[in-house]
Amino acid sequence: MTRVLPLACVLACVLLIWMAAVVPMNWDQAQALADDGAQWQDVAWATLSLDRPLLPAPHQVAGELIGSIAGWPVTSPRSLVFHAVVTFAAAVVGFVLALALGVALAVGIVHVRTLDRALMPWVIASQAVPVLAIAPMVVVVLGNLGLTGLLPKALIAGWLSFFPITTGMVKGLRSPDPMQRDLMRTYSATPRQEFAKLRWPASMPFLFPGLKVAAPLALVGAIVAELPTGAQAGLGARLLAGSYYGQTLQIWAALFMAAVLAVLAVAAVDLAQAVMLSRRGGRL
Amino acid sequence: MTVLLLAASLAVGGSVLAWLARFDGPVFRAATPVAFGLLVLWLWQVACTGFGVPRVLLPAPLEIGRAIATHLPLLAADFQQTFLRAVMPGWIVGNLAGLLAAIALDGSAFLRRGVLPLGSLVSAMPIVGIAPIMVMWFGFDWQSKAAVVVVMTFFPMLVNAGAGLASAGAMERDLMRSYAAGYWQTLAKLRLPGALPFLFNALKLNSTLALIGAIVAEFFGTPIVGMGFRISTEAARLNLDVVWAEISMAAAAGTLSFALLALLERAVTFWHPSFR
């Protein structure tokens, strides 16, 4: 209760402020559309139900969301679920790529000193580079090579999200202290056994926070990768089309759908962590 | 021939790297990644010229360098539009607003419990998606890009500053109370300095986010200048050397701001265990 009540209050406040902002934001447009001699009450009511409002009212966004989710079959390009699935698929493939690359890089960095010295600074520097800037080029070049659709988007999503996984895994694989490693040596464990029985399990508590950062990043990558090419499907395409044709409701609905997907992605990582926890007796 | 040269370069470069990595000390620690970068550039150049990779797929490093040199005024104009007009003001305003909001929330545990979880939730969301809305509200010019940057940087700062302000221990607070320090004195002398590592975390994270936000917002409509605009239009016209020049500039701007912030952090939080 102490956790839910403040959240509910703040959410209610946000909603109220939103509602209150709708009237002044849309006032000019509503007034321009109103009949001559319309009372100010009529104009105020009209601000809540414009076709292309500057700021749509919450119930309009909810209506658009429900309409575009439930109003069309899932396979129709008018259905928001269709676009969400297209984007989510690219994000998931990218996330899996990032997981594979991130873990492989981390294993290499931890075990090969040359890689550690030569590669790690670049991995860190890659964090300061606006990776999304290369998205248009990757999409165009891969399109030239005949690769369109899911793969270019997945590559960008993967590139954007591998960093937190790599750094988390490097930290995790290095987390066993010398005492524990000495113990493994007194058991005459081979390096491979030490990796499988000590380093790998020890790295899991560091992997999951990295995954939790990476999952929403993969989603951002997939959405942005859809922008520069005029993709036909996906939440990014939906945002872009809405922006071109001034379909505000469509933009807001796509935005809320993206937020829902981000929450789902983080929840999925949480679930995986919970499964891992219970299999390891409540301790990570 | 090219394959042989590539293999030889790889072998020589690899052994040089392995040799460099064996030594300790600041010089060798810096030399290894630099050598690795040079090796990658060299392999890239050899592969591009050797295999005759078409320029519309991957321009060689030298061509990119030539593009940077010939398009310098263009690059400078884009840099001014995107970095100086959109990224910097947006980053400053967003961070300040986040910090002030965190301080304002500080008085009430109720508000904190309501806002901070929401803030971390929002930080995990694809906020760049608000770009079309901001373009609709603030127009095509830099104002809409700065607005996207403000929103993108606000939440990480809010969450980090909230955590930082909470990080002062009970002992230190008791000490301040025994000095009869008031709320603002405790804030200025104990809790804000104690929050600095958290604040710098957010500042560094936000420096990248701000660049991403401004560049992506330019994909949604912009006057005919700006890094995001140039990248998307020149990529569509297959002028990849210009695109790479623009990307090199974005990378340099991002890395430099990050490095400057890291230096500043070192100077300001010299007392933190990670620097001692």
Automatic annotation (TrEMBL), chain A:
<keyword id="KW-0812">Transmembrane</keyword>
<feature type="domain" description="ABC transmembrane type-1">
    <location>
        <begin position="84"/>
        <end position="273"/>
    </location>
</feature>
<feature type="transmembrane region" description="Helical">
    <location>
        <begin position="80"/>
        <end position="110"/>
    </location>
</feature>
<feature type="transmembrane region" description="Helical">
    <location>
        <begin position="251"/>
        <end position="277"/>
    </location>
</feature>
<feature type="transmembrane region" description="Helical">
    <location>
        <begin position="206"/>
        <end position="231"/>
    </location>
</feature>
<dbReference type="GO" id="GO:0005886">
    <property type="term" value="C:plasma membrane"/>
</dbReference>
<dbReference type="GO" id="GO:0055085">
    <property type="term" value="P:transmembrane transport"/>
</dbReference>
<protein>
    <submittedName>
        <fullName>ABC transporter permease subunit</fullName>
    </submittedName>
</protein>
<keyword id="KW-1133">Transmembrane helix</keyword>
<dbReference type="InterPro" id="IPR035906">
    <property type="entry name" value="MetI-like_sf"/>
</dbReference>
<feature type="transmembrane region" description="Helical">
    <location>
        <begin position="122"/>
        <end position="142"/>
    </location>
</feature>
<dbReference type="InterPro" id="IPR000515">
    <property type="entry name" value="MetI-like"/>
</dbReference>
<keyword id="KW-0472">Membrane</keyword>
<keyword id="KW-0813">Transport</keyword>
<dbReference type="Pfam" id="PF00528">
    <property type="entry name" value="BPD_transp_1"/>
</dbReference>
<keyword id="KW-1003">Cell membrane</keyword>
<feature type="transmembrane region" description="Helical">
    <location>
        <begin position="154"/>
        <end position="173"/>
    </location>
</feature>
<comment type="similarity">
    <text>Belongs to the binding-protein-dependent transport system permease family.</text>
</comment>
